[in-house]
Each structure stands twice: as C-alpha cells, then as structure tokens.
Design brief:
It comes from Microbispora maris. This protein has 361 residues and is mainly alpha-helical. It is built from 14 helices and 4 strands. A hairpin with a 3-residue loop joins strand 3 and strand 4. The two termini are 28 Å apart.
Length: 361
C-alpha cells in the first residue's frame, strides 16, 4: 500500500504543476461562472423605471415611478434613456420605439386593476395549490441535470484519457521497467488511478465551489431546489465510481500500445461506451422518470452518469439508488481486477501493439 500512495503522490506532484492542468482548471472555473451568470443576464432587469405625469398609479412590485413635470419632459426622459417608459395622465404610455413586451403587460395589468378598483368591484384572487413539493423547481432541476451531464462527461473522459496517456508514456519511454523494480504492477496502476483521480476531484470541487459562489452573488440560490447538498454529494460519489471504472479500462487498453499515435484507436471501445452513457444521461435529464432512464440508471456503467442526473432532475427512490450503487461497486471491482491482469501482462511488452485476446488468455 505504501508503494501505491508513493505513486499517487508522484502523479499529483507531477501533473498539478503542468500548464495544461492549471489552464483546464481556470477554463472550468470561468465556464461555470459564465453559466451561473447567464440566467441573470438573459433575464434582464428585475424592475422598470417609469416616468409619471399627473397622478401616480398604485404601486406595482416590478415598477419604480419617477415624477415628471409635463409631457415634454417625459418625452425627453424617454428619448435620453432616463426612464424605460412614461405614463401620461394615467391613460397613455410613451416609449422609445417599440414598448418592451413585459413592461407593456405590467402597465396594462396595473391600468386594468385601477379601473376595476375605481368601479368598486372586488376581485377574489385564485387559490393556487402545488400538487408536487418541487413542482416550482422542475425547470431549475432540469437545467441542473443537463449541466451535470456535461460536467461529468468531460471530467470522466478527460481524467481517463490522462490515465491512458500516462501508461503509454511510461511504457514507450521504458520508465515503467525502472518503476517496477521498486513497486508491484498493481501498486503502479493503482497509484496512477488514485493520483489522477484526486486531480479530477479537485477539478470537480472547483466547479462546484465556483458555481455556488456565483449563484450566491447573483441571488440565484433562492431559485435552487431543496436538497442541493444531496445532489452535490451524489455527483461526487458517482464521479468517483465512474472514474474508477473508466480509468481502469483506459489503463488496460493503454498498456497494449507503446506509442501515443496508437492510443486513439485502441481506446475506441471505451470512448464509444462513454458516448453511449453520455447520450443516455442527456435524455435522462429531460425524462428522468422514463423507462429508459430508470432501467439504465441501474446498469453499470450507465448508472455512473444516469443516476446522478436522475437524482438532480427528480426524486429517486432510495432503494433504486442503493441497488445502482451496489451494482456499480461490483462492476468497478471486476473491471479493476481485469485491468490489473491485462496491465501486468502487457505493460512490459514493447514494440508492436499487443492483442487483448492474447493477453487475456
């Protein structure tokens, strides 16, 4: 075990200082911050400034009134951009070009309410009842699930590729022969997976922290659904399981070749499986209660992305989560054992590409 931790520490120290890792970390933080600010930017202003000539209408939450002396001053204020629109004597609206659709609806509703009140009619508001505890958060949960699909996919494929590239680099340069004089093959493989996995967790932690910080800054946290802590924990746990599965495959396939040029072709089965998992998880974000999402969220390795996405998009029974977790742990253990066997037999065989069937036999 000491050998494994030494290898893991070496991987962390080596990779964390590289420009590529630091740049990817910065890019991840910037992209997440931009996505968190996007609803605020696209949503426009919360209130409108309306100039008023004559009697001021009843207060409206979305409107701020500015008193103006006459219509000429109101027109000038509208053209200069000092106000979004001007209300003249409670019956006319002056706008610079076409009136903003949302502002027009608010003014129309306020004008209608004023006329109804003047007529002495009392309006009884509708009683609205939510039939689901999280019904008001459904659109937000769908957005979070979609974002989670992209984050998990890129982190998983990015981390797994780093594992494969590291294996090929050590094998091609024959450094692995020196390393194996001090540690066992399973320790070298395990240390590489643990070390690069720690870097993947750092990347995921940066994304989560930056996303939550920007959400607090923009006030978006008020719209976040309850149970965000559970969603975050679920994403971390399933990332670890998914990373362990795919990084073991990447190491096994990477040990079959000695040149980086051959890596893409030998990793084709793994990348195809990851793409299928990604597509399935994307559909699960839109239809989290559908039959396809429910079934594949229990099947490894699809569960590594589908289950956290389902958890973010909808309420999932605890029993289904536990079953999916147990099955995924079993699948990870099986893949790790198989990958260690392939790695041990192929990593010292340099030259031409080693056939997987030959190594397994």
């Amino acid at each position: 075990m000491n050998g494994l931790m030494l290898v893991a520490q070496r991987e962390i120290r080596t990779r964390v200082r590289t420009k590529s890792f630091l740049i990817s970390l910065a890019v991840s933080a910037v992209l997440v911050a931009a996505l968190a600010f996007l609803p605020k930017v696209l949503g426009g202003g919360d209130t409108y400034d309306v100039g008023v000539v004559g009697n001021a209408p009843a207060p409206v939450a979305q409107l701020e009134y500015s008193r103006l002396p006459d219509e000429a001053a109101a027109r000038k204020a509208v053209i200069d951009g000092d106000v979004d629109a001007a209300l003249i004597d409670g019956g006319r609206v002056v706008a610079n070009g076409e009136l903003d659709q949302r502002l027009g609806l608010i003014l129309e509703a306020a004008h209608r309410d004023a006329q109804i009140k003047a007529a002495g009619v009392t309006i009884t508001p509708l009683q609205v009842e939510s039939v689901g505890a999280d019904a008001q958060y459904q659109s937000v949960r769908t957005g979070l699930a979609t974002l989670l699909v992209m984050v998990l996919f890129f982190l998983l494929i990015y981390s797994a590729m780093y594992v494969a590239m590291g294996v090929v680099e050590e094998k091609g340069s024959r450094i692995v022969e020196i390393l194996l004089t001090s540690v066992r093959p399973w320790q070298l493989l395990g240390g590489k997976i643990v070390g690069l996995g720690a870097l993947g967790l750092i990347n995921l932690a940066v994304i989560i922290v930056v996303g939550l910080a920007v959400s607090f800054a923009t006030g978006f946290t008020a719209d976040l659904p309850p149970g965000m802590a559970g969603i975050v924990v679920s994403a971390i746990v399933w990332f670890v399981l998914g990373y362990a599965f795919f990084s073991a495959l990447a190491a096994a396939f990477g040990s079959l070749v000695s040149r980086q040029e051959e890596l893409n072709s030998v990793l084709t089965p793994m990348t195809t499986l990851m793409m299928l998992t990604y597509v399935t998880a994307y559909f699960a974000a839109v239809e989290p209660t559908g039959t396809l999402a429910r079934v594949l969220s229990l099947v490894p390795p699809f569960s590594s992305m589908v289950m956290p996405v389902r958890t973010a998009a909808a309420d999932v029974p605890l029993m289904e989560i536990l079953i999916a977790g147990v099955l995924m742990v079993v699948a990870v253990a099986a893949v790790l054992l198989g990958a260690a066997r392939v790695y041990r037999r192929a990593v010292l065989r340099t030259g031409a590409r080693v056939k997987l069937g030959e190594v397994v036999r």
